[in-house]
Design goal:
heterodimer; A: mainly alpha; 2 domains; about 65% helix; B: 10 helices
Chain lengths: ~230, ~210
């Protein structure tokens, strides 16, 4: 039974709660680094590594970190791991480092990582947190890879650098192509979700970890906390 | 020459290298807060302010503390902490001394800490610093770049708020409703900004 629960923590991030296509988090790297499939994998693996490590540490420290300073504490932990990953990538995969450029250190502000820290790792034991991070990371990588393959295939006619199509539609690897392909993928995810009878997200704020700080959401949050306390 | 290059940096940050539409930084507020014009403007002004302020702090710290001590690897950790601290400080100061401004901008400030555009501006500008070429970025260039990036964000947000206003009354296929159509609209706005490619170099040739 317990094993079944753990497996669920892992698989939910891949399909049901895919961070990119269902929760619509981490849009910046999704759009920016998916000009080729290999970039997408590099970004996905780097973010997954940070996600698993930070989830593990945050989960271990969840009883030590005072509630009031938890967001700065989470950011510091995440930034530490991002620096480690950055140095490792620079040393072992300099080509990936060059093509990811600024987006590698920007994993710090990737809302998926802070979001999982806030929503999951800060409340759950270590093992489920690690599996949750791994699942979300795999889901993120899969979505990036999907975008990367579509954009590389249409935009430069190649796949992982191998030329396979004679036609190239340059616009797909330019910024507008990124927005367009992402829009189409979300449309597909919405379509499948509606068919399965699930609720569809309408604003990108719904899954955002910082949404609680928005003025419009403040009343909702206090209402939620009141019900939680009542429980 | 200096003025000319400053103008070039400013225009490039707004038009050709727009942080939202060509570098994909700050997409979350771009999609999330652009529904109404006044919130879009409020958010952009707050972002511009924080961008300039954090560049003004991080640039000297990087050049005069981290580089001489050979600790460039601390950049990521240090920058995000500086930005988070600054945002908190600005919020406290505004609340105490300029409550009117706090009421209009204060609600956006906590959101800006994890805005990738702010961190991106402070980090990207350091890649332009190369003392071996004649066109290296000085502290002045960095500040102008940050201000231009903020104004570019404002321009993109205001334009997009207008586009979304028109989308409200449009007849949209069911599956495209909400986020997908917003992204397709963003693609078209971004496409229009591609038209500026090479514009600044032609207008103000440097060397």
């Amino acid at each position: 039974m317990a094993q079944k629960g753990l497996l669920k923590e892992f698989t939910k991030g891949i399909v049901k709660e895919n961070p990119v296509l269902c929760l619509v988090l981490g849009t910046c790297p999704t759009l920016a680094v998916t000009t080729s499939a290999s970039n997408a994998i590099g970004m996905g693996v780097a973010a997954t590594a940070v996600l698993v490590c930070s989830n593990a540490v945050i989960s271990l420290l969840r009883k030590v970190i005072p509630d009031k300073v938890r967001i700065p504490a989470y950011i510091t932990i995440i930034a530490g791991f991002v620096s480690v990953v950055q140095m490792l990538v620079k040393a072992f995969a300099p080509a990936i480092n060059d093509s990811l450029g600024i987006y590698l250190p920007l994993i710090v502000v990737n809302c998926i990582i802070l979001g999982r820290a806030e929503m999951f790792a800060g409340k759950n034991p270590v093992l489920p947190s690690i599996l949750d991070g791994l699942g979300m990371g795999v889901g993120f990588t899969a979505a990036l890879l999907c975008m990367g393959i579509i954009r590389e295939l249409l935009g430069s006619g190649s796949l992982f650098g191998m030329q396979i199509m004679p036609v190239q539609i340059l616009i797909f690897i330019l910024p507008p192509g990124g927005f367009f392909v992402f829009g189409m993928l979300i449309m597909l995810a919405n379509k499948l979700n509606t068919r399965a009878g699930k609720k569809v997200k309408t604003t990108p704020c719904d899954g955002c970890p910082m949404a609680d700080n928005c003025a419009e959401k403040t009343c909702e949050k206090t209402a939620k906390e009141a019900t939680l306390n009542a429980d | 020459m200096l003025i000319k290059s400053l103008v070039a940096v400013f225009l490039a940050a707004i038009l050709t290298e727009n942080y939202v539409l060509s570098k994909f930084l700050g997409i979350c507020p771009f999609l999330g807060v652009s529904k109404k014009l006044n919130t879009a403007v409020g958010m952009s002004v707050a972002v511009t302010f924080v961008m300039v302020l954090s560049t003004a702090v991080t640039f000297p710290i990087y050049t005069y503390v981290l580089v001489p001590m050979g600790m460039e690897y601390l950049q990521t950790v240090l920058f995000i902490l500086i930005i988070a601290g600054l945002v908190q400080l600005v919020e406290i100061v505004l609340r105490k001394y300029i409550p009117a401004l706090y009421n209009s901008l204060g609600i956006y400030l906590p959101l800006i800490t994890t805005n990738c555009a702010v961190l991106g501006v402070t980090m990207l500008v350091l890649q332009k610093v190369d003392s071996t070429t004649a066109y290296t970025y000085t502290f002045g260039h960095a500040l102008v770049n940050a201000f231009g990036a903020g104004i570019g964000f404002l321009v993109a947000m205001v334009m997009f708020a207008g586009v979304r206003g028109r989308l409200e009354s449009a007849d949209i296929p069911k599956s495209l409703k909400g986020l997908p159509i917003t992204l397709v609209a963003a693609a078209l706005v971004s496409l229009s900004f591609l038209g500026f490619a090479g514009f600044v170099d032609k207008l103000i040739p440097l060397g």
